[in-house]
């Protein structure tokens, strides 16, 4: 990951995830905190950072592609 995606995750994505309503996901999220040991929790957090940052960038690229498709229909 780049410094930008690390910053983006820490400053924007992670706070947004923490503020969201977890209704329906409480049990799954609780299991992540209670069944993983400390090392696994760190690895899980790193994987979440990686995938969340890249998913955000994918959304940006997809939006840019859709804009071009809308402006230049077939």
Q: Taking all residues together, what is the mean pLDDT?
A: 89
Q: What is the oligomer described by this structure?
A: single chain
User: What's the order of the H and E elements?
Assistant: HHH
Count the DSSP helices: 3
Sequence stretches where pLDDT stays below 50 over 5 or more residues: none
Termini separation (Å)?
36 Å
The computed structural class is mainly alpha
Computed CA radius of gyration, to the nearest angstrom: 16 Å
Strand content: under 5%
Sketch the major β-sheet: none
> What is the number of E strands?
0
Q: Quick one: overall form?
A: elongated
As a percent range, the share of helical residues equals over 70%
Descriptive overview:
There is one protein chain. The protein is mainly α. The protein is 81% helix and 0% strand. It contains three helices and no strands. It has helices at residues 3-19, 26-34, 38-71. α1 packs across α3. The mean pLDDT is 89.
């Amino acid at each position: 990951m780049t410094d930008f995606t690390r910053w983006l995750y820490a400053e924007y994505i992670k706070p947004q995830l923490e503020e969201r309503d977890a209704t329906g996901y409480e049990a799954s999220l609780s299991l992540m905190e209670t069944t993983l040991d400390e090392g696994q929790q760190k690895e899980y957090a790193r994987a979440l950072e990686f995938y969340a940052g890249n998913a955000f960038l994918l959304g940006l690229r997809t939006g840019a592609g859709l804009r071009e498709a809308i402006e230049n229909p077939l």
